[in-house]
Design brief:
Elements (H helix, E strand, L loop, with lengths): L6 H11 L1 E4 L5 H14 L9 E4 L2 E4 L7 H4 L5 H10 L4 E3 L4 E5 L15 E2 L8 H4 L3 E7 L11 E2 L3 H8 L3 H9 L2 E2 L13 E2 L7 E4 L5 E2 L9 E10 L3 H9 L1 H4 L2 H6 L2 H7 L3
Antiparallel strand pairs: 1-11, 2-3, 3-5, 4-13, 5-13, 6-9, 7-11, 7-13, 8-10, 8-12
Amino acid sequence: MPKQKKIKDYRQQFINQGYAIVENVLTTEEAEEGSLILLDKIRPESPESYAGIWGTRRQLKRPQHSIPEIARWATHPKLLEIVSNLIDGSFRLTDEPLPIVTFPGKVCGCLKDGNWRGHTDGLSRIPFLEREGKAVSIWLTLADIEPSGGATTLIPGSHWLIEKMAVDPEFRAKKERNNTYTAEDNLDGLDWNPKEITLKAGGIFFFNDQAIHSASDNLLRQPRLICAYGFTKRGNQEEELSARQSIHKRFNSDHLEIMDDQMKRLIGLV
């Protein structure tokens, strides 16, 4: 029987490869409950004012809107245990969790059709190992994500090459104009081996946004159902006071009214 991974092993994989997957965070029943809620709240015909539209992908607009029944899993014991091993010290939830549904259809290309292209979320000026352990985004899946099913797709280890190249002013200026990467216009030294992040319902994944990644088309009948939870290390007294003062800009007001004490502590309200 293979040795079971420890959370520190997932963190090391995240450092080395730029992503990691942890299965069985939610139970099958919890994930199924969440999938029904999400499909009831976000639909293909959801208006732009409610969910931003990118092809067949629908992404809840925050903080104007919230799904408290999904957001509450930010306090799930297994999820918090993982976060506590990824962030060095006490932490808080940064903003309203982000539910996303990718319905069947086109978004931005896919591996199967050979037209996938990636990007990074900007170019950080802070070395990865100086940022690692200070913040993390956890992506919780509420239904199985199969190959060609709209998965986040990523090139493992590419964050290290991007960090190395980003010190070049010419490279940085070019990518600030057009921050896309393709197999045809590949970087020297990069093994172009995009990997779909597939996993079972109830699992989570997290990845470095400086790795080359992107969403992808959903060629299956099953919608891809996920929710992203952002966490950050708590700052000093002044920083935390500033965070509390901006809390209504980051969280839905109606949601704040019904939060339990555990959730209020997690967002830094009490």
